Amino acid sequence: MWIEKLGSYFVDVSKYILTGVVISSLFKDFEDKVLIYIVGIALAFLCLVVGLVLSNKKDGKGKKEKEK
Question: Superkingdom of the source (predicted)?
Answer without folding.
Answer: Bacteria
